[in-house]
Design brief:
It is built from 12 helices and 6 strands. With 277 residues, the chain is an alpha/beta fold. The strands form 2 sheets. A 4-stranded mixed sheet has the order 1-3-2-4. A two-stranded antiparallel ribbon has the order 5-6. This is BTB domain-containing protein.
Protein backbone atom coordinates (compact mmCIF):
# COMPACT_ATOMS: atom_id res chain seq x y z
CA UNK A 1 0.00 0.00 0.00
CA UNK A 2 1.09 3.62 -0.71
CA UNK A 3 -0.27 7.09 -0.14
CA UNK A 4 -1.16 9.85 -2.57
CA UNK A 5 -2.30 13.44 -2.03
CA UNK A 6 -3.57 14.14 -5.56
CA UNK A 7 -6.50 11.79 -5.99
CA UNK A 8 -9.06 11.66 -8.78
CA UNK A 9 -12.03 10.39 -6.77
CA UNK A 10 -14.85 8.27 -8.20
CA UNK A 11 -18.10 10.19 -7.55
CA UNK A 12 -19.87 7.18 -5.99
CA UNK A 13 -17.12 6.50 -3.45
CA UNK A 14 -16.08 9.73 -1.72
CA UNK A 15 -16.50 8.87 1.97
CA UNK A 16 -14.48 11.38 4.00
CA UNK A 17 -13.88 8.93 6.84
CA UNK A 18 -12.88 6.00 4.61
CA UNK A 19 -9.83 4.09 5.83
CA UNK A 20 -8.99 2.52 2.43
CA UNK A 21 -8.52 4.03 -1.01
CA UNK A 22 -8.65 1.67 -3.99
CA UNK A 23 -6.84 2.92 -7.08
CA UNK A 24 -7.91 1.63 -10.49
CA UNK A 25 -5.53 0.84 -13.31
CA UNK A 26 -6.36 4.22 -14.87
CA UNK A 27 -5.72 6.07 -11.58
CA UNK A 28 -9.28 6.73 -10.44
CA UNK A 29 -9.62 6.38 -6.67
CA UNK A 30 -12.37 4.89 -4.54
CA UNK A 31 -12.62 5.95 -0.91
CA UNK A 32 -14.21 3.04 0.92
CA UNK A 33 -14.41 1.48 4.38
CA UNK A 34 -12.31 -1.60 5.05
CA UNK A 35 -15.18 -3.15 6.99
CA UNK A 36 -17.34 -3.10 3.86
CA UNK A 37 -14.56 -4.70 1.83
CA UNK A 38 -14.19 -7.45 4.42
CA UNK A 39 -17.94 -8.07 4.26
CA UNK A 40 -18.30 -8.26 0.48
CA UNK A 41 -15.00 -9.83 -0.56
CA UNK A 42 -13.16 -12.93 0.59
CA UNK A 43 -10.02 -11.67 -1.14
CA UNK A 44 -10.03 -8.37 0.74
CA UNK A 45 -11.00 -10.11 3.98
CA UNK A 46 -7.85 -12.23 3.73
CA UNK A 47 -5.67 -9.33 2.62
CA UNK A 48 -6.80 -6.98 5.39
CA UNK A 49 -6.43 -9.63 8.04
CA UNK A 50 -2.66 -9.62 7.53
CA UNK A 51 -0.93 -7.48 10.22
CA UNK A 52 1.01 -5.32 7.77
CA UNK A 53 -2.15 -4.54 5.77
CA UNK A 54 -4.43 -3.51 8.60
CA UNK A 55 -5.80 0.02 8.01
CA UNK A 56 -3.97 2.69 9.98
CA UNK A 57 -5.31 5.77 11.75
CA UNK A 58 -4.82 8.96 9.75
CA UNK A 59 -4.49 9.25 5.98
CA UNK A 60 -6.06 6.18 4.32
CA UNK A 61 -3.83 3.69 2.57
CA UNK A 62 -4.00 3.37 -1.21
CA UNK A 63 -4.29 -0.07 -2.73
CA UNK A 64 -3.40 -0.36 -6.42
CA UNK A 65 -5.68 -2.67 -8.44
CA UNK A 66 -5.51 -3.93 -12.03
CA UNK A 67 -9.09 -3.15 -13.11
CA UNK A 68 -10.18 0.01 -14.92
CA UNK A 69 -12.37 2.56 -13.14
CA UNK A 70 -15.44 1.52 -15.15
CA UNK A 71 -15.09 -2.13 -14.15
CA UNK A 72 -14.13 -1.44 -10.55
CA UNK A 73 -16.87 1.17 -10.12
CA UNK A 74 -19.56 -1.15 -11.48
CA UNK A 75 -18.33 -4.03 -9.31
CA UNK A 76 -18.29 -1.96 -6.11
CA UNK A 77 -21.72 -0.48 -6.86
CA UNK A 78 -23.21 -3.95 -7.24
CA UNK A 79 -21.40 -5.27 -4.17
CA UNK A 80 -22.42 -2.26 -2.06
CA UNK A 81 -26.10 -2.47 -2.96
CA UNK A 82 -26.06 0.75 -4.99
CA UNK A 83 -27.92 1.26 -8.24
CA UNK A 84 -26.65 -1.26 -10.76
CA UNK A 85 -25.01 0.49 -13.71
CA UNK A 86 -25.54 -0.52 -17.32
CA UNK A 87 -23.85 -3.86 -17.93
CA UNK A 88 -23.79 -3.55 -21.70
CA UNK A 89 -21.99 -4.62 -23.81
CA UNK A 90 -21.48 -8.24 -22.82
CA UNK A 91 -17.68 -7.77 -22.90
CA UNK A 92 -18.03 -5.24 -20.10
CA UNK A 93 -20.30 -7.55 -18.11
CA UNK A 94 -17.78 -10.36 -18.46
CA UNK A 95 -14.95 -8.12 -17.27
CA UNK A 96 -16.95 -7.29 -14.13
CA UNK A 97 -17.64 -10.99 -13.61
CA UNK A 98 -13.95 -11.83 -13.87
CA UNK A 99 -13.16 -9.14 -11.30
CA UNK A 100 -15.90 -10.42 -8.98
CA UNK A 101 -14.43 -13.92 -9.19
CA UNK A 102 -10.91 -12.61 -8.62
CA UNK A 103 -11.96 -10.75 -5.47
CA UNK A 104 -14.25 -13.56 -4.29
CA UNK A 105 -17.47 -11.55 -4.27
CA UNK A 106 -20.41 -13.98 -4.31
CA UNK A 107 -23.05 -11.24 -4.33
CA UNK A 108 -21.97 -9.60 -7.60
CA UNK A 109 -21.33 -13.03 -9.15
CA UNK A 110 -24.97 -13.97 -8.50
CA UNK A 111 -26.24 -10.67 -9.92
CA UNK A 112 -24.09 -10.97 -13.04
CA UNK A 113 -25.08 -14.60 -13.52
CA UNK A 114 -28.71 -13.57 -13.64
CA UNK A 115 -27.98 -10.56 -15.85
CA UNK A 116 -26.13 -12.61 -18.46
CA UNK A 117 -29.15 -14.83 -19.01
CA UNK A 118 -31.70 -12.04 -18.76
CA UNK A 119 -33.50 -10.57 -21.74
CA UNK A 120 -32.62 -7.14 -20.34
CA UNK A 121 -28.96 -7.63 -21.25
CA UNK A 122 -29.84 -9.47 -24.48
CA UNK A 123 -26.34 -10.92 -24.71
CA UNK A 124 -25.41 -13.00 -27.77
CA UNK A 125 -26.26 -16.65 -27.01
CA UNK A 126 -22.88 -18.03 -28.03
CA UNK A 127 -21.11 -15.66 -25.65
CA UNK A 128 -23.45 -16.54 -22.80
CA UNK A 129 -22.98 -20.22 -23.57
CA UNK A 130 -19.19 -19.80 -23.49
CA UNK A 131 -19.30 -17.92 -20.18
CA UNK A 132 -21.66 -20.44 -18.62
CA UNK A 133 -19.66 -23.39 -19.91
CA UNK A 134 -16.39 -22.17 -18.42
CA UNK A 135 -18.11 -22.05 -15.04
CA UNK A 136 -20.23 -25.19 -15.38
CA UNK A 137 -23.44 -23.18 -15.02
CA UNK A 138 -25.64 -26.00 -16.29
CA UNK A 139 -29.03 -24.25 -16.32
CA UNK A 140 -27.63 -21.14 -17.99
CA UNK A 141 -25.67 -23.17 -20.56
CA UNK A 142 -28.77 -25.14 -21.53
CA UNK A 143 -30.84 -21.98 -21.88
CA UNK A 144 -28.15 -20.31 -24.00
CA UNK A 145 -27.82 -23.39 -26.22
CA UNK A 146 -31.55 -23.22 -26.98
CA UNK A 147 -31.05 -19.64 -28.18
CA UNK A 148 -28.40 -20.78 -30.68
CA UNK A 149 -30.81 -22.94 -32.68
CA UNK A 150 -31.45 -20.17 -35.20
CA UNK A 151 -27.71 -19.76 -35.85
CA UNK A 152 -25.59 -21.40 -38.53
CA UNK A 153 -22.62 -22.51 -36.44
CA UNK A 154 -20.49 -22.80 -39.57
CA UNK A 155 -20.98 -19.17 -40.52
CA UNK A 156 -17.46 -17.64 -40.65
CA UNK A 157 -18.79 -14.58 -38.84
CA UNK A 158 -19.32 -16.72 -35.72
CA UNK A 159 -15.85 -18.29 -35.70
CA UNK A 160 -14.42 -15.95 -33.07
CA UNK A 161 -17.35 -16.60 -30.74
CA UNK A 162 -17.04 -20.37 -31.16
CA UNK A 163 -13.35 -20.16 -30.28
CA UNK A 164 -14.32 -18.80 -26.86
CA UNK A 165 -16.20 -21.99 -25.99
CA UNK A 166 -14.34 -24.70 -24.10
CA UNK A 167 -13.93 -27.84 -26.23
CA UNK A 168 -16.30 -30.17 -24.29
CA UNK A 169 -19.09 -27.62 -24.39
CA UNK A 170 -18.43 -26.80 -28.04
CA UNK A 171 -18.74 -30.49 -28.94
CA UNK A 172 -22.04 -30.72 -27.08
CA UNK A 173 -23.36 -27.68 -28.96
CA UNK A 174 -22.33 -29.09 -32.33
CA UNK A 175 -23.91 -32.40 -31.33
CA UNK A 176 -27.17 -30.64 -30.50
CA UNK A 177 -27.39 -29.05 -33.95
CA UNK A 178 -26.47 -32.35 -35.61
CA UNK A 179 -28.99 -34.30 -33.55
CA UNK A 180 -31.76 -31.90 -34.50
CA UNK A 181 -31.10 -32.49 -38.18
CA UNK A 182 -31.00 -36.27 -37.76
CA UNK A 183 -34.14 -36.31 -35.61
CA UNK A 184 -35.96 -34.26 -38.24
CA UNK A 185 -34.82 -36.65 -40.97
CA UNK A 186 -36.11 -39.63 -38.98
CA UNK A 187 -39.42 -37.91 -38.31
CA UNK A 188 -39.99 -37.01 -41.98
CA UNK A 189 -39.31 -40.61 -42.97
CA UNK A 190 -41.96 -41.94 -40.56
CA UNK A 191 -44.51 -43.33 -43.01
CA UNK A 192 -47.04 -43.64 -40.23
CA UNK A 193 -47.16 -39.83 -40.06
CA UNK A 194 -46.04 -38.77 -43.53
CA UNK A 195 -47.52 -41.43 -45.81
CA UNK A 196 -46.01 -39.76 -48.88
CA UNK A 197 -42.61 -41.03 -47.72
CA UNK A 198 -43.69 -44.53 -48.76
CA UNK A 199 -43.04 -43.49 -52.32
CA UNK A 200 -45.16 -44.28 -55.37
CA UNK A 201 -48.80 -45.10 -54.50
CA UNK A 202 -52.27 -44.78 -56.08
CA UNK A 203 -54.04 -41.43 -55.72
CA UNK A 204 -56.65 -41.53 -52.96
CA UNK A 205 -59.25 -40.14 -55.41
CA UNK A 206 -58.40 -42.11 -58.53
CA UNK A 207 -56.19 -44.96 -59.67
CA UNK A 208 -53.41 -42.77 -61.05
CA UNK A 209 -49.99 -43.77 -59.68
CA UNK A 210 -48.55 -40.81 -57.74
CA UNK A 211 -44.78 -40.63 -57.28
CA UNK A 212 -44.92 -37.86 -54.61
CA UNK A 213 -41.94 -36.13 -56.19
CA UNK A 214 -43.10 -32.79 -54.73
CA UNK A 215 -42.98 -34.20 -51.19
CA UNK A 216 -39.51 -35.70 -51.67
CA UNK A 217 -38.24 -32.44 -53.18
CA UNK A 218 -39.60 -30.49 -50.20
CA UNK A 219 -38.08 -32.96 -47.73
CA UNK A 220 -34.70 -32.81 -49.46
CA UNK A 221 -34.64 -29.01 -49.42
CA UNK A 222 -35.68 -28.89 -45.76
CA UNK A 223 -32.97 -31.30 -44.68
CA UNK A 224 -30.36 -29.51 -46.80
CA UNK A 225 -30.77 -26.26 -44.88
CA UNK A 226 -27.87 -25.22 -42.69
CA UNK A 227 -30.30 -24.34 -39.89
CA UNK A 228 -33.38 -26.33 -38.93
CA UNK A 229 -36.26 -23.80 -38.86
CA UNK A 230 -38.36 -23.33 -35.73
CA UNK A 231 -41.55 -23.24 -37.79
CA UNK A 232 -42.75 -23.38 -41.38
CA UNK A 233 -45.60 -20.86 -41.27
CA UNK A 234 -44.29 -18.77 -44.18
CA UNK A 235 -42.18 -21.39 -45.89
CA UNK A 236 -42.27 -21.09 -49.68
CA UNK A 237 -41.11 -24.66 -50.28
CA UNK A 238 -43.95 -25.94 -48.11
CA UNK A 239 -46.43 -23.76 -49.97
CA UNK A 240 -45.21 -25.10 -53.32
CA UNK A 241 -45.43 -28.69 -52.12
CA UNK A 242 -48.91 -28.25 -50.64
CA UNK A 243 -50.22 -27.08 -54.04
CA UNK A 244 -49.18 -30.31 -55.78
CA UNK A 245 -52.04 -32.05 -57.59
CA UNK A 246 -52.66 -35.51 -58.97
CA UNK A 247 -52.01 -35.67 -62.71
CA UNK A 248 -54.89 -38.07 -63.11
CA UNK A 249 -57.74 -36.19 -61.36
CA UNK A 250 -56.17 -32.79 -60.69
CA UNK A 251 -57.06 -32.91 -56.99
CA UNK A 252 -54.70 -31.74 -54.27
CA UNK A 253 -52.42 -34.52 -53.09
CA UNK A 254 -51.95 -33.25 -49.54
CA UNK A 255 -54.21 -31.86 -46.84
CA UNK A 256 -52.43 -28.62 -45.96
CA UNK A 257 -53.90 -28.44 -42.43
CA UNK A 258 -52.86 -31.99 -41.55
CA UNK A 259 -49.47 -31.52 -43.18
CA UNK A 260 -48.78 -28.33 -41.22
CA UNK A 261 -49.91 -29.95 -37.98
CA UNK A 262 -47.63 -32.94 -38.50
CA UNK A 263 -44.64 -30.83 -39.52
CA UNK A 264 -45.14 -28.51 -36.55
CA UNK A 265 -45.26 -31.51 -34.22
CA UNK A 266 -42.08 -32.86 -35.79
CA UNK A 267 -40.22 -29.57 -35.28
CA UNK A 268 -41.43 -29.20 -31.70
CA UNK A 269 -40.26 -32.71 -30.92
CA UNK A 270 -36.64 -32.00 -31.85
CA UNK A 271 -33.91 -31.71 -29.16
CA UNK A 272 -33.91 -28.12 -27.93
CA UNK A 273 -30.82 -27.82 -25.70
CA UNK A 274 -27.52 -29.48 -24.99
CA UNK A 275 -27.36 -32.59 -22.85
CA UNK A 276 -25.49 -31.82 -19.65
CA UNK A 277 -25.30 -33.61 -16.29
Amino acid sequence: MSQDCNLQIHPSFTSADADIVLSSHDSVHFRIHSQLLRHISGWFRTLLSLPNNAPRIGAPDILQLDETANVLGALLCIASGMKIPSLRPVDFCEQILLAAEKYEMPGPISVLRIALTSSLLDAPPLRVYAIAGRRDWIVEAKAASARTLSLDLFDPALRSELCRIDAPYLMKLLQLHHDRKEALRKSLEDVGVFTASKGSAPCYSCTYQVDHIEWFRFKQKLLARRVVPSDLLDDRDLETMSQAVCRGCNKLLYNSVTMMRNLTAALRGLPSNVELP
